[in-house]
Amino acid sequence: MLTGIIIGVHVVVSLLLVLFILLKSGRGGGLSDMFGGGSMSTMSGSTVVERNLDRLTVITAVIFMMTTILLGLRLT
Fold this sequence. Notes:
Layout: H1 2-23, H2 37-44, H3 48-75
Helix pairs in contact: 1-3
């Protein structure tokens, strides 16, 4: 039962991580330009939206790493 819950969390976190990485703007812009992050980022460095997206990406990556380790320990 616990393994099923961890797998469910792992799948959700995986999809969120992919979404957050796709939303990040690269050199030439990205999907975050659709939400107003493109024009402001060239003038002021990084916007509040980009900083929050960076934080969410890091938090999601840490949760992904923890669930991966838990699954590895649980399934061996």
